[in-house]
Amino acid sequence: MDVNKRVCKRCLIREMAGQEKIYETIQRMIADLPETERAPKALREERLSACKQCERLTDGMCAACGCYVELRATIADQTCPYDVW
Ligand code: SF4
Question: N or C: which end of the chain has fewer CB within 10 A?
Fold first, then answer.
């Protein structure tokens, strides 16, 4: 573990420098989802906006469920484990 690594509270992967590989992986997983299983873009952004206000978001990951929120918010029938969305 790199003790000098800083965590980014309330950041999405797409906003973090040095996370391009993880971002690409998430984007590939999203692209592989059938269109019918994807939440509409406006809903995704609304969900991500809520995550960005949440104290459980760290380095793009939800501390409550361990998911990358950009993936979780994209899956239409997913919910927030704390009912924020
Ligand atoms: S999914 Fe819910 S608990 Fe997790 S970071 Fe987003 S708002 Fe917070």
Answer: N
